[in-house]
Amino acid sequence: MATLGVQRKRALLRMFCMYMQVFVKGRFSLSGSTVQTRDTRKLECLLRAVRAVSTRLEVPMHHFMKSATCAIVNLSSESVPRSVWVKERAGRTWRDMHNPDFINDARRFRSYFRMPAPLFKTLLDWLRPRLERQHTQMRLPIEPARVLACALNRFASGETYERVGDRFGLGHATAIECTRRVTQAILDTMWGLISFPDAEGMTRNIAKFARQGFANCIGAIDCTHFFLEKPDKQLDSDYHDRTHNYSVVAQCVSDMDQRILDFAVGWPGAVHDSRVLRRSLLYSRATQEGFFADTAARLDYGGRVNQYLIGDAGYPNLPWLLRPIPGQPQGDRKRFNDAHESVRKCVERCFGRLKGMWRVLYKHQKGDVDGINAQIQAIGVLHNFCIDGNVYFNVERFMARHRNLGLFNQHDDEGGDAGINEQSGDAARDEVVAHMAFRAFRAPRRG
């Protein structure tokens, strides 16, 4: 009698587990609501029968549930599409990326990702170890190529996450996560692209400035603003800049080719350019580590000057940072100011290329300020990556079309941070003025 009871219990357990497998497969593989409803009714009837039998046989109900759980776990190891987890989206651009016609259409590909397909593949190879996810028994992970494509299209277009995600068959939250992952991967693996060049590169860089009269100059420095939606109330006044927008400030050093040599991001929009300078790592390297010391070069007329940057009137005049001569100078000093204004525009063109190629920086951004700062830094790395890859961008045309929006000429007035320990740079500036005067005197005159 006892043996018969055990057999009945085992038979009941087998029946319950078998039906649970059939039911779960039907729920996850069948889309018809009628079938699912019928299965649900059958399961409810079966559970009532199991409860009744378990009561008569004095078998605790959790024994049956434990067996059912084991059946579901065994079933989950199979590759079963779970349509209830993912909403179907268009994903047209992602499908196009598998079409050779789309890949070979360089102009169209660049309109989505700001780089040609071979350069996209190079970037993907660099970032792939950071973008790959382990395969599990749940859903398949998103392909690294799709993650990168989603983030680049978001940076390039500045459109909403919903619209960008829909292009690649992703949801709003997934598009945000893809952008965050690519941002962090770029900062972790490629931040070294933003740096002052090595000795050979520095020689080429100095030669380009020297042809414009600025001997031993290594770059131009300026600040720009990236606009935000209104932040939290406690940060309201800090981020409200002089143009009556909310923004964060970035300090950039650029060479003549619009390449970023130093990039510091994250100060609130109300902070003056000179204060940003004083709080930056560049200022510490210059004043405490002697970054510009012992770099003197002999000038044409016989003088000597260390390496230096040029900046607008919002900066102090330092031995390593030369600003224009104030007032209305004449003669040789006016020549210096005219050349200074002309050469300094390389950093404005750098900002124009940065915001023109990556339109998310052109628009008012919404979200966590720290996350926005990280995205700006990552896009700065992509800026240099594209320059190194010889990606062309007509920055003059973009700036001419959008100059009235105040995206580039964002100079602060004189004054700024009185806390700067200013060592007068007048002597270094006078050396450069004399050098330009000597060059002008020796230049052949047209007659």
From TrEMBL:
Chief location: nucleus
Organism of origin: Chara braunii (Braun's stonewort)
Cellular component, GO, one term: nucleus
Annotated GO MF terms: hydrolase activity; metal ion binding; nuclease activity
Descriptive protein name: DDE Tnp4 domain-containing protein
Source organism, top-level taxon: Eukaryota
InterPro entries membership: HARBI1-like, HARBI1_dom
Domain DDE Tnp4: residue ranges: 221-384
